[in-house]
Each structure stands twice: as C-alpha cells, then as structure tokens.
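Re: that chain you flagged

S.,

Sorry for the slow reply, it's been a week of failed gels. I finally had a moment to sit down with the sequence you sent. For the record, here it is as I used it:
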Amino acid sequence: MRAIRQFWKNNGAGYLFLAPWLIGLICLTAFPMGFSLYLSFTQFDLLTAPKWVGLLNFTEMFHDRKYWASVAVTLKYVLIGVPLSLSFALAIALMLNRGIRGLRFYRAVYYVPSLFGGSVAIGLLWRQLFGGDGLVNSFLQVFGIPGKNWIATPSTAIYTLIVLTIWQFGSSMVIFLAGLKQIPTDLYESARIDGAGKWRQFRSVTFPLLTPIVFFNLIMQVIHAFQAFTPAYVVSGGSGGPLNSTLFYTLYLYQKGFTQFSMGYASAMAWVLLVVIAFVTSLLFLSSRKWVFYQE
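Prediction finished late last night. Pasting the structure tokens below so you have them in one place:
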C-alpha cells in the first residue's frame, strides 16, 4: 500500500490529465474493436441477438464474387492512384522549391484540394465534371473529340476516381517541400562542379536524401487509399457501379453492414482489411531498409 500511495503521489497528476484520453481510447476505440472482432464470428442483423457461427463469415468471402470484385477494384485504385499521386506531388514540390515568388500563396492553393477532396461536395462536383454533359466533355468538344459519360462507363469510371486522388496531392506536396528545404545546398554545388546536370542531381542527391520522406508519404497514402469510401459512394450513388467498376472494399463493407444488415459479415471484412493494411505496411517497413538511403 505504501508503494502504491507513493506512486500515486508522484504520478497521480499526470494520470488525471491522461484520464480523458484513456477513457476515450477504451470506450471509443478498444471496446468497439473488440466487439467487432466478436461480431465477425457471428450472424448479426442489428435486430436479433448475435448467433455464433465461427469462421463462416470468413469462408463465405472466398465464394463471394462481389467481394473479390471489390478487392480487385481497390487494388487497382491503390496500385495506380498512389504512385501517380506521389509523383505529381513530388514534381510540384520540386517546382516550388526553385525559389519562386509568392511561394506561400502557391503552397496554400495547392494544399486546398487536400482539405476538400474527400468531401461529399467534391464527389458531387466530380459527377458533374465527368458526366455526359459535364465540363470535361465540353472541353473535349472544343477540339472535336467526342466525349462520353465517363462515370457511367465501366472501363473509365475507376479512372475518374484515380484522377480525384491525384488531385488531392497537397498534403504530400507540403511534406515533400519541407524535406527539400532540409537538403544542404552545398551538395548541389559540389554536384554541379563535378558536371552533374539537373537529372543527375535529382538521382544522386535529391532522391536519396528524400527517401525517408517518400517512405512516410507512401505509407500514409497507401493506408488512405485502402480506406477510401466517400468518393466512390457519392460518384456511384452508393451502388459501386457501373458493373461494380467503382465498388471499393469499404463501399461493399458498407453495403453488407448497413444496407443488407449483415453486420457479422461486415465486421469480418473490416478485420480482413485491418490485417491486410498491417501486412502491407509491415512489408513496406521491411523493404525500406533497401531503398531508404538516408536516416538521421
């Protein structure tokens, strides 16, 4: 008891300040996660008590064609959208790092899409831009190029969402720009003295010293892409169409849980997604030792 009183005397104030965060962690994060793990082994429709079914929800996924369609769409979105978004963000950051006037203004303008890109309003705007009578087709008609309803065409619908994720490059761009500011200028002077051109300077100086920033942005963008939901929901009207071409994993999870009220199946999907994100993140961390060339 004496040791407990002494510990509380020395640390009690700190734990009291931490109490709101700890209560929120337990009640709003840990308990819901634990309950969803339990639900993943049950059949639950929100109206009746959960019924234990073991691994049935997980085995059903292997025979669910729509589930695998959502996996394919999500992987396509991640594998195409993330590299293009990071490349575009890095290119803009390199341009802004050249010491142009009004840097703060341009940095703020380019960052704005990241603030609004995942909103419902932007999703509705995207439907108007890429619709049959949208601004994109109006622009193409100026050059005599026939347009189409990009959102309603299965072969192009997913690419409109990829364009949207590229448009939200602002947060990665700001981080890249901060990293570029930390690279010593004398390294570039030495490279120029050795006869290195702009491309060789980028390959030998900029990118190697920027790889920790690239790695951080890659991790964040991959996680964000796997969790993408709002754009696909708004653009497709919640259906994931046409022909499941925009049926993201999270959108199908929403359909199973809140449209079909199959909460057990939806919980199982959520935990599979969590494991996949953890696995992919771990692979990126393990592989980073081979290509992250500079560390503090």
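What I noticed first: The first helix runs from residue 2 to 39.

Talk soon,
D.
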